[in-house]
UniProtKB/TrEMBL annotation:
GO terms for cellular component: cytosol. Residues 38-97 form the RecA family profile domain. Belongs to the RecA family. This is Protein RecA. GO terms for biological process: DNA recombination; DNA repair. It comes from bacterium (Candidatus Gribaldobacteria) CG_4_10_14_0_2_um_filter_36_18. InterPro entries: DNA_recomb/repair_RecA, P-loop_NTPase, RecA-like_N, RecA_ATP-bd. Keywords: ATP-binding, DNA recombination, Nucleotide-binding.
Length: 97
């Protein structure tokens, strides 16, 4: 049992390393890793969500996707993020597709 768990862990580590090499440091990480990746972020407007995201907001300069069932606050969240970006002098667009 311990050997199988060790093999699974090695497979996961290999996959994570390949993703890091392909997409860069911080593209994927284990939740139990202590080190913090320095990423320029846009706050969401919710301190709790910013904390849960692990970096203090959504990463600046990257495409993000917000999804969920209807009436869960997706549009509100997107507009809050857009407003925070504009407060920092950024330019953004809200596309309702």
């Amino acid at each position: 049992m311990a050997k199988k768990k060790e093999e699974n862990s090695k497979g996961l580590d290999d996959a994570l390393e390949e993703i890091k090499q392909r997409f860069g440091e911080g593209a994927v990480m284990k939740l139990d890793e202590v080190k913090r990746v320095d990423v320029d972020v846009i706050p969401t407007g919710s301190i709790s969500l910013d904390t849960a995201l692990g970096v203090g907001g959504v990463p600046r300069g990257r495409v993000i996707e917000i999804f969920g069932v209807e009436s869960t606050g997706k549009t509100t969240l997107a507009l809050h993020i857009l407003a925070e970006a504009q407060k920092k002098g950024g330019v953004g667009a809200f596309i309702d597709a």
